[in-house]
Amino acid sequence: MFKIAEEKRKQNIAEYLLFVWQMEDLLRGLNFDMKRLVDEILVSIEDDNELGENIQWFQKMITSMKSSGLQVSGHLPETYEILNELQLLQHTLLTVIGDANFKKYHATAKPVIEEF
């Protein structure tokens, strides 16, 4: 999961956000139980180093979620920062720069975005 998250963060930040939000929900569904996470989700990871990276990544997420009061709902502050940066970029491309290609693609995607 850790490697998937890192790859998504490098290649497609929107997919990264969705992935992290799914992992938050997964942790909530498991009641933040690390043993269940290892036994039920990470069980197929055979490499000890990879397993350790994943455990550390999820443990960090659990700690951050609990300290931010996100046991029931909400998202990690890091994801809101990324989302805000994406919104600023969108605003800049649409209004400040007025990028024609971006405007065209945005207009095509807008109905689906609004429906979502």
- Taking all Cα atoms into account, the compactness measure Rg is 17 Å
Ends: how far apart?
26 Å
What's the helix count? 6
What is the residue-mean pLDDT, rounded to a whole number?
93
- Provide the β-strand percentage band: under 5%
Number of strands: 0
Sheet with the most strands? none
What are the low-pLDDT stretches, counting only 5+ consecutive residues below 50?
Answer: none
- The rough form would be described as elongated
Give the ordered list of helices and strands.
HHHHHH
Quickly give the structural class: mainly alpha
Please give the share of residues in helix: over 70%
Present the secondary structure layout:
Layout: H1 2-11, H2 13-29, H3 34-41, H4 48-67, H5 77-96, H6 100-115
Helix pairs in contact: 1-2
Can you offer a commentary on this structure?
The chain has 116 residues and is mainly alpha-helical. It has helices at residues 2-11, 13-29, 34-41, 48-67, 77-96, 100-115. Helix 1 packs antiparallel against helix 2. The longest helix is centred in the middle third of the chain and has 20 residues, at 48-67. The two termini are 26 Å apart. 8% of the residues are buried.
